[in-house]
Amino acid sequence: MKPSEITPLTTIKVFELMEEAGVPAGVVNLVLGSGNTVGAELSTHNDVDLVSFTGGIETGKKIMQAASGNVKKIALELGGKNPNVVFADADFDTAIDQAMNAVFFHAGQICSAGTRLIIEEKIHDKFVDTLVERVKNIKLGSGFDEKTQMGPLISAEHLAKVEQYVETGKKEGAKIAVGGKRPQDSALKKGFFFLPTIFTNCTTDMTIVQEEAFGPIITVETFTTEEEAMKLANDSIYGLAGGVWTSDLLKAERCAAAMRMGTVWINDFNVYFPHAPWGGYKQSGIGRELGKLGLEEYTETKHILHNLKPEPINWF
């Protein structure tokens, strides 16, 4: 296993716990280093039979190219720009609560974040107004503080990237309903914090709607019909996950079938089960993690035939 060079500590701790638990040496190995050196070596080395990668599209494409040199098997989970579709007949309060959790959990730094909020037009104003007021009260702070609801971004470089996406959104015509900047609280000045942000007046051609910012940003679009909602939901190069909120069971099932994503949650979001496969459609990746399919990614199929009574064929 090779963690990102900017997030190694959790993985190191997991390996320490495995050692304490008695996992034999060599069963699982930890390799630390940068993607450009260590990652590249793993992707091309002849003794590595499979590379399973979770990360960005561009890095995933580089791994595909590198692995093609020796036709190495790959499994890629390359993120998403995930739609969260809310119909007027949804449970309003729960949909509000989960719209926040879908994005601001981990400050949006999660591949399945429901950053594209697609709301039925007739409830748009009430939904956005309520959501904005709730978002204003999110407490930012250190992960070591039990009262913290949202932590910082991973690095100064990533904070600058998120800020650039916000500036691009404003230039392209989206309106900031809340957030859109670093917090002014002096206690947060030393961290890479960014306020939870909601953009309204968004269209599918905007950069902030199409590209994964990997930060605490929600874009809001509206629809009037089920068909329009599905068109908006699928208008992306990504296809990792999505959610649909409605009290109409048949409509929920139709939408789940229509959404071109590896996982669709109905009246829920960001719920995972170890026995359920996880992975994406389109440019969100190749292969699956978790479940039986996830285990099969790490196996090689072999057919062995043993003739217990060999006899001459006598063809020649």
UniProtKB/TrEMBL annotation:
Domain Aldehyde dehydrogenase: 1-304
Pathway annotation: Amine and polyamine biosynthesis; betaine biosynthesis via choline pathway; betaine from betaine aldehyde: step 1/1
UniProt keyword list: NAD, Oxidoreductase
One Pfam family it belongs to: Aldedh
PROSITE patterns assigned to the protein according to its UniProt record, in alphabetical order: ALDEHYDE_DEHYDR_CYS, ALDEHYDE_DEHYDR_GLU
GO MF annotation list: oxidoreductase activity, acting on the aldehyde or oxo group of donors, NAD or NADP as acceptor
Active-site annotation: E77
Keyword Oxidoreductase carried by entry: yes
InterPro entries: Ald_DH/histidinol_DH, Ald_DH_C, Ald_DH_CS_CYS, Ald_DH_CS_GLU, Ald_DH_N, Aldehyde_DH_dom
Entry-linked SUPFAM superfamilies: ALDH-like
Family per record: Belongs to the aldehyde dehydrogenase family.
Name of the protein in its database record: Betaine aldehyde dehydrogenase
